[in-house]
Specification:
This protein is α/β, with parallel strands linked by helices. The chain folds into 3 domains: about 150 residues, Alpha-D-Glucose-1,6-Bisphosphate, Chain A, domain 3 (3-Layer(aba) Sandwich), CATH 3.40.120.10; about 210 residues, Alpha-D-Glucose-1,6-Bisphosphate, Chain A, domain 3 (3-Layer(aba) Sandwich), CATH 3.40.120; about 80 residues, Alpha-D-phosphohexomutase, C-terminal domain (TATA-Binding Protein, 2-Layer Sandwich), CATH 3.30.310.50. The chain contains 16 helices and 21 strands. It is globular. It starts with 11 loop residues before the first strand and ends with a helix. The model has no long low-confidence stretch (mean pLDDT about 95).
Length: about 475
Amino acid sequence: MTLKIKFGTDGWRSAIADGYTFDNLRRCTQGFASYYLNEGKKGEWIVVGYDRRFLSEKFAQSAAEVLIGNGFRVYLTDGPTPTPVISYSVVAKKAAGAINITASHNPPTDDGFKVRDHTGGAIAPDGLKAIEALIPDDTTDIKIGSLAEAEKNGTLVRFDPAPAYLENIKKLVDLEPIRNAGFKVLVDPMWGNGSGWFPKLLAGGKTEIIEIHKERNPIFPEMLRPEPIPPNVDAGLKATTENNADVCIIFDGDADRLGVGDEHGEFINQLRVYALIAYYLLEVRGQRGAIVKTLSTTQMLNKLGKIYDVPVYETGVGFKYVAPKMIETNAIVGGEESGGYAFRNHVPERDGILAGLLVLDMMVKLNRKPSELIDLLFSKVGAHYYDRIDVKFTGNRKDREEKIMNANPKTIGGLKVLGLNSQDGFKFSLEDGGWLLIRFSGTEPVMRVYCETTHEECVQSILQDGMQIAGLA
């Protein structure tokens, strides 16, 4: 039976040699090509890039063949490339969009298919639905061109995407103070596309960059998956203390997400990192403008919005919602709970490399270690605590959703429930300004239970109540 390809939070992902086959990839690319043909884009350039997963370069070539067969011209990256660099290349090359072969943070068994529009940002939900609807049921009508012929006639160009991206980064961050700060920075690219970029950006000064997990290894040893959250970050945090480093910078497999560890080898969760970055942009850089956040991220942003008199917009989970809202509001920053942050004057796309540089710049400008930055943040907005549980999901999703909707709890974790938002999952607002969120992952068969609260002692009881409400306990 033909696989029905469905786009999740950020494109399509599946297990290699099971759902993710060359034929299914070509079907997906044909749907993308048909969508762009309907938009009148025939003959325009499309950027194609890929990550370090098993066979990703071959999958990228197959996608390029289908684009060529449909009358498009293709810029193909000359090696594994971070997602934000691929996205910036769309803008730098004035391309119509991009296809990115990556499964991001998924397990090593998977690969994926991300698409981007002319801004370098995620295609909005309506566009993704249109692409999905145009994916053919089989390979019969897929048009395939010759890469060799395309290279000869100039309709396929292999290119180095680094120079244009690095040039823009240098406009956004003054690198010299970071180079000369004398920091010892432990960088963990998680065997992925972020390898080599910090040494390239920060070489030549007093700051020392120590990289681990920098080779290509598609089985991702020392971690369950290349996702910058515990326990996957444990090896990097251990190396931080072993090397007496000042900070740990962690990228996910395609380097669009950032994880941070402090000077003690303690993980700083993604909600705190996002609040720190927003505080830095508002207080240190003096920027003003909207903040965009998904409903699964921190209320600290709302408190910062009130302090600095800037609007805060909340969207569904995924940059397919965040990117359009950033463009609409000219936001200074947009981000989500997964550790992805995007910035004004760049592209409306998560960029772990730029976000990591901003963390280092914050350390320079405020002359504080990472743990001291958290103390400073909490002095402004109060202490906030967060955790999440991921559980493999089986069974009927509608039955689960109905059970959650009808649960009607009066308290969660001992805190009074003030309301329920079912915009994307089920978000219960709590009396302390915190929340519990239960939602289905858009990229894999997982249910997530998350919470944030100002009461540290309530975190685990909130999560356990959430598991009961979801029927997972």
